[in-house]
Structures are given as structure tokens and as C-alpha cells.
Amino acid sequence: MSPMTLLWVFLGAGMATFLIRLSFIAIEGRVRLPAWFRVALQFVPAAMLSALIAPDLLMRDGTLYLSPHNTRLLAGLVAIVIAARTRSVGWTIAGGMATLIALEFLL
Questions:
Q1: N or C: which terminus of the chain carries fewer CB neighbours within 10 A?
Q2: What is the pLDDT of residues 7-51, one digit of tens each?
Q3: Neighbouring C-beta atoms of residue 80, cutoff 10 Å
Q4: Do residues 92 and 83 lie in contact, with contact meaning Cβ atoms separated by under 8 Å?
């Protein structure tokens, strides 16, 4: 692929992403969204985050990896407990990463 083609692909993808996000901002005051749609929108961030994180925690080399030696899954479970207890993003990230580093070192 030529550098110019790659540039056009990046610009097109960036413009498409911008327009999709702008569409919700632009119609906010003009269109009344149904109540069920507004309720459903509240779950989008959690669903997207789960979709990004779950494969990394549960899979290795393209297969399901549920094992006591799966350090990422164990650290993720610790991070879930920390998040439920503290409701702090900072403590969740710090605790999950510290657990992952410690488990990687020990196992």
C-alpha cells in the first residue's frame, strides 16, 4: 500500500469516527430520543470496556484459558474486587497492575 493511500485511509477513518460522534452531539437538543434508547446508552461504556478487556483476561493464543496460572485473569479478579470496594479508578488500576506484576514474578 502506498503512503498516499494509507494517508487517505487514515483521514477517511478519522472523519467517519468524528462524524459518528458528532451526530449524537448535534442532534441532542433537536431530536427527542426515546427513553429506552437513553437508558440503553448508559450501558455503552461498560459494555465497550468489557468487550475490550475480557478477551485479554480469558484467552491466550486464541483459546479459552481458565487456569490458576492465568495471571491476567487473577489480577483482573483482584481489580474487580478493588473496584467494588473502593469505587476508585486509581486504586483499581494500581491494585490490578501490582497484582499482575507480583503474579508474573511469582508464577
A1: N
A2: 999 999 999 999 988 887 887 778 888 899 889 989 999 999 999
A3: 13
A4: yes
